[in-house]
Amino acid sequence: MPYRSGSARPTRNPQVTSSFNQTADAIAHAADLTDGDWAPVDLRTFESTRRPFIHVLGDASVAGAQPKCGYAANAEAKACAAAVLAQLRSEPLPSPADANTCYTVVVADYGISVVTQYRLSDDGSQIQAIGGGTTPLDASTEDLRREAAHAHAWYRNFVRDVFG
Questions:
Q1: For the chain, which end, N or C, has fewer CB atoms within 10 Å of the first or last residue's CB respectively?
Q2: What percent of the chain has pLDDT over 70?
Q3: How many angstroms separate the CA atoms of 71 and 144, rounded?
Q4: Does pTM top 0.70 for this prediction?
Q5: How many Å separate Cα 37 from the centre of its chain?
Q6: Is residue 94 within 8 Å of 83, Cβ to Cβ?
Q7: How many Cβ atoms sit within 10 Å of the Cβ of residue 2?
């Protein structure tokens, strides 16, 4: 399907490489929260497995299949808060489950998305991807327009959720 401008879909350039090496930030390393590049956590609570009562979220944590993105970090923060609240109330820990959505607005009225659902494994040892999908390659113009509208709505809601 051509872009609205009529040009063909771009292809990935295998010649482009990056020397960027993402790791937990210096504060996590200085606090001895990391094991190698990342901070291991209890996936039910996001509490550090190296330092009790310290919780590590987002890019710095080892959160299994969850991507290192703001949306996942926001979901991890909510799971962590629910777990801390349960611990303070001496209640059973909830089992985190979430979905991550990544939208791309290619041009004003052409959007695409990738959605993945996650849940904690029964034994609590990993966060697993359990389903999801992408915008179909043969999506109609109306579907692509709707994806762009969803992307803008998602962004407004996410910013409101994070910053109030």
A1: C
A2: 87
A3: 22
A4: yes
A5: 18
A6: yes
A7: 8
pLDDT in tens, 14-60: 554 555 568 889 999 999 999 999 999 999 999 999 999 999 998 89
Strands (E), the chain: 39-42, 47-48, 61-62, 97-107, 110-120, 127-134
Query: 23-44 burial string, b = 16+ CB within 10 Å, else e?
Result: ebeeebeeeebbeeebbbbbbb
pLDDT in tens, 70-85: 888 899 999 999 999 9
Cβ partners under 8 Å of residue 103, min gap 6: 111, 112, 113, 147, 150, 151, 154, 155
Interhelix angle for 141-163 vs 70-88, to 10°? 50
Q: How many CB atoms lie within 10 A of CB 45?
A: 19
pLDDT over 90 at 124, yes or no = no
Q: Is 142 helix (H, G, I), strand (E, B) or coil?
A: helix
CATH topology of domain 26-163: Flavocytochrome C Sulfide Dehydrogenase; Chain A Domain 3 (3.90.760)
Domain spans, the chain:
26-163
**Residue whose token pair is 């959007």:** 111
Burial 93-128 (b: 16+ CB within 10 A, else e): beebebebebbebbeeebbbbeebebbbeeeeeebe
